[in-house]
Design brief:
Elements: E1 3-7, H1 12-28, E2 31-38, H2 54-78, E3 90-96, H3 99-109, E4 112-118, H4 123-129, H5 133-140, E5 145-148, E6 159-164, H6 170-184, E7 187-194, H7 201-218, E8 223-229, H8 233-243, E9 248-252, H9 256-264, H10 268-274, E10 279-282
Parallel strand pairs: 1-2, 1-4, 2-3, 4-5, 6-7, 6-9, 7-8, 9-10
Antiparallel strand pairs: 5-10
């Protein structure tokens, strides 16, 4: 059984993500692990040469574990499950170090299927696209990262949008995503964004081959395809998130051209404001990397 890892700094954004993760975990019958990364209270150029007392470290770690236990208890108390429903186990851990390093160690050591993180209100631009913790996390970990916008309340996931550039590596991602979707009997909408004037006969053949491979690999009968005609990827994703009636949007991080354009492009603020859905990002891969199968 997979575990959902929730990094937390005890902020409202991270606690809201934990609430979302708990309800998602009930839907897919997964457990939860809360994770906190803390720094030693020494912020001087000579910090590496200072010996920090072991007793102080132990006391601080005990205090943080106490906060994590309090958070776990509050999550269960304030979000009761239905009688007879699956109740995820909530574990927790804390370690000294950078959050990305601590999280990566937990992912490597435990059976983590997904990371769920919160985004601050001003944070979609600064915390994701411009190289913050969220972006760094996606760069460094191998499992999918679900970014939860502020104030997002969990609701049943009936439709998942998957944006693809028809990269063959996306076939494995769709296979992994189908395992997630079937717990909730959710539809998967595969969306390819392209300018109508560039869809040639050869391009249509590529689409047909891609969908044939999806059918053979995913073996899930609620996968649909839609070609979205748009002048560029940014406008296409904007339209999809606004009009696709989605409960979650999924992308793969190998779209380097898209991420680079988002950093410098004129549509950054527009897209950032419009993507109000939980955004599940799979790390880039070569098509042979093992992905979580839920």
């Amino acid at each position: 059984m997979k575990t959902i890892l929730v990094p937390t700094d005890f902020s409202e954004a991270s606690e809201n993500a934990a609430r979302y993760a708990l309800k998602l975990a009930r839907s897919i019958k997964a457990h939860i692990k809360l994770c906190n990364a803390f720094k030693v209270p020494v912020e001087t150029p000579m910090a590496a040469q200072i010996s920090w007392p072991v007793e102080d470290y132990a006391d601080l770690k005990e205090d943080i574990n106490g906060e994590l236990q309090t958070l776990a208890d509050r999550l269960i108390r304030e979000n009761p499950s239905d009688r007879g429903a699956f109740q995820p186990r909530i574990d927790y851990t804390c370690e000294v170090g950078l959050v990305t390093d601590v999280v990566r160690n937990v992912v490597d050591e435990d059976d983590i299927g997904m990371i769920v993180m919160g985004m601050s209100g001003a944070g979609f631009i600064n915390r994701f696209f411009l190289g913050s913790t969220s972006r760094t996390m996606i760069d460094k970990v191998t499992c999918p990262v679900l970014l939860v916008p502020p104030g997002t309340v969990f609701k049943p996931i009936n439709k998942i949008g998957f944006a693809t550039d028809l990269n063959t590596g996306d076939i494995n991602v769709i296979h992994s995503l189908a395992g997630l979707a079937q717990y909730m009997n959710a539809e998967i909408l595969i969306a390819h964004i392209a300018d109508e004037k560039f869809i040639s006969e050869g391009h249509q053949h590529k689409i047909d081959e891609f969908l044939t491979e999806v059918t053979c690999k995913a073996n899930y009968n609620k996968i649909y395809y839609r070609n979205i005609k748009s002048m560029d990827v940014e406008h296409g994703l904007d339209w999809l998130s606004e009009h696709g009636q989605l409960d979650m949007l999924v992308m793969v991080h190998h779209w380097q051209h898209f991420f680079n354009r988002m950093i410098s492009g004129s549509h950054t603020k527009k897209i950032a404001g419009h993507i109000h859905l939980p955004l599940l990002v799979y790390s880039g891969h070569d098509g042979h990397t093992a992905l979580p199968v839920f």
